[in-house]
Amino acid sequence: MLNTLSGRFLILTVIFVMLAEVFIFVPSVARFREDYLLTALERAQIASLAVEATDMISPDLERELLKNAGVFNVVLQRDDMRQLALSSPIPTPIAATYDMRDPGDIRLIRDALATLWDSEPRIIRVLGSPVQGAGMLIEITMMQMPLRTAMLEYGLNVLYLSAIISAITALLLFLAVQAFLVRPIKGVIRHMQNYADAPEDARRIIEPSAGVRELRDAEDALQMLQTQLTSALRQKDRLAQLGGAVAKVSHDLRNILTSAQLFTDRIEGSDDPLVKRMAPKLVNSITRAVHLCESTLAFGRADEPAPRLTRVNLARIVAEVVESERLAAGDYPLSFAEDIPATMVLRADDEQIFRVLSNLVRNARQAIMATGDPGEICLRGEEDDTTWRIVISDTGPGLPSKARDHLFQPFQGGVRKGGAGLGLVISGDLIRGHGGRLTLQDTDATGTIFVITLPKADFALAPAAA
């Protein structure tokens, strides 16, 4: 019970109601004591009227009047004279005097608490103003114990009433919490458990229906989370299926390219000067395609193979990439600039660096050609004591916002219509395999700049800031 939300609300309600009753109890007991003493003064004044009506009263009648009034003595003051209207022996000395003529609230509460705390049979004197203007002062002496007994009975009645009010309030709050909080929360839990059984089933996504705003916000957030998770699971499933299909295609394509590689050996023996110049490039392209198919098959089994680090001349690789893209551009007014120091040698995987640069330059070429305007692609190499940097810049139209938001996410960061957006994902993975990073430095309507940073030492660079 204590571990449930409604049970804790129930207990807290009882506690808070009882605390509220305590704050009400003390002033009400003080007011009850004031009324009790004022009533005793009125009874004593009425008893004194019998004395004024006759000159002499018998001792028995005087004792009867004092007993009915509940006092020992009654003193009246008119003008400047004090008159002992009724009297009887006082068993003990007077212990305290209370003036009921316009007392303050704090004083009433203090005297009431003192009366409740004092359990001794004491005699008290009470001063007050006579009713109906029948004098200036009335004074009585009386036992304090009957007053204390009456106050205790009144306090117990208040306590019983408070307990009943607390129980009713707690029950109503318990039912309200069950209806407005606990039941909707249990409904959300049932939805979560149902969704967990089959998260790929979109029919199990929660439909927000809570009337309480906070619970409705929680349901909205849960719906968004479940929708994103279901979408991610579907995409993961499609990627797994696509990976299987790509692996099969790569397997067959590798066999075809291997056969084509054998044919190129014959072509290399041709006497045609153009064939002699183009044949090595064709052989290199087919060799790279075979390696790519083998890497794809390896990726389907585990991950991109680790780079085989060797001493690589960057200028040679850039020249091969640029020449391939020049052929692809044909007669389009697109220029290529190579600013690579001839002595700049990287410690990297030759094939993987070629793939990265080829992906980036190809993306830039396709973006520029899609605009129909002339353009330029520039590759620049830099180095310092700790890193090598390769800067690829173009004068294209820049990346659209969707591509920037999902730059390195497969099937989401594509720029061309129909593109899969895998080029940058693969390039980023390959560069990270070298311990480096691929970052988008800038992109706007005047062009795009990508930067490849590779470490010279055997350590990985920190990831680029988002």
Automatic annotation (TrEMBL):
Ranges for domain Histidine kinase: 248-458
Subcellular location: Membrane
Coiled-coil ranges from the UniProt annotation: 215-242
Enzyme Commission designation: 2.7.13.3
PANTHER family, sorted: SENSOR HISTIDINE KINASE TRCS, SENSOR HISTIDINE KINASE YKOH
Parts of the chain that traverse the membrane: 9-30, 158-182
Main location: membrane
GO terms for cellular component: membrane
GO molecular function: phosphorelay sensor kinase activity
KW Kinase (keyword) present: yes
One Pfam family from the record: HisKA
Catalysis: reaction(s): ATP + protein L-histidine = ADP + protein N-phospho-L-histidine
Broad EC category: transferase
InterPro entries given in the database record: HATPase_C_sf, HATPase_dom, His_kinase_dom, HisK_dim/P_dom, HisK_dim/P_sf, Sig_transdc_His_kin-like_C, TCS_sensor_his_kinase
Keyword Hydrolase among UniProt keywords: no
Official protein name in the record: histidine kinase
Keywords recorded for this protein, A-Z: Coiled coil, Kinase, Membrane, Phosphoprotein, Transferase, Transmembrane, Transmembrane helix
